[in-house]
Amino acid sequence: FGDLHCSFDRGLCDWISDREGDLHWEAVDSPAGGRYLSVPELKAGQRSNRGARLAIDIVPLLNQGDMCFSFSHWLTGHHVGVLQMFIRKKGRDQRYGSALWSRTGGHGWRQTQVTLETHSVDKVLLKAERRIGRRGQILVDDVTLRQGACL
């Protein structure tokens, strides 16, 4: 069984969903070709409490040992907001823990990799929050799940 990779060139892949947020990810054409996901700036008077949420299912076929979850991200602008990563453990309470990773700025595309223990994790959440009156870009691309720990 191979890797799961989503470049968003054809929209969301079937193991990724966007729900429960009050902002939404939009697929945007990249100048270099292909597409990536973007969270638009808040419109005048718009408020966001829940942010834009991208839920990534840890597909049961892959539940054998560790997996490497990776994604590319771009955050630019003064106080653009925050991009965070959460995991949800298997079990009854079905809640996400505190953020495993967080970014509030940077320059250019960066890649983040996190090793997941798939026997205990069933979902990963990428959440983008926008602040009122803050400009800049929050972009995500190339979400990948691959067997084995990250290198």
TrEMBL record:
Q: Which InterPro entries match?
A: ConA-like_dom_sf, MAM_dom, MAM_domain-containing
Q: Which CDD domains match?
A: MAM
In terms of domain of life, where is this protein from?
Answer: Eukaryota
Q: Which PROSITE patterns match?
A: MAM_2
Question: MAM domain spans which residues?
Answer: 4-151
Name of the protein: MAM domain-containing protein
Q: What is the scientific name of the source organism?
A: Ilyodon furcidens (goldbreast splitfin)
